[in-house]
Amino acid sequence: MITSEELINVVENDSTESNFKSVAENLLEAIRDWPKENLSEPIELISELKLEIKEKLTFENIERFSKTLKVEKDAWKIESLTSLLKVFEIEQNENDDGEIELEVLLERVSNRRK
Q: Which end of the chain is more exposed for a tag (fewer CB within 10 A), N or C?
């Protein structure tokens, strides 16, 4: 799976406004915004989301979970999830896969980098 180091490299060195760069930016924002200390890698964020959401990490399930959160106490989670939903939107616009899971989506992004 793609690492934060690879994502940062794309953001810093890709002078285009490609979909891949947008995915990298939004994924990094999602990782940074999730309210857990020392969370730094996409795989760690996925583990956290699985603990919270307890369903497949699809666009629909993440969006539904996000709507159950309260801004007063979960603002950073909402911000993180909003960034992740943008990743889905970018990828689904490019490759309409319907209910793709986050892990599959990130593997596809990882493979694009190789």
A: C
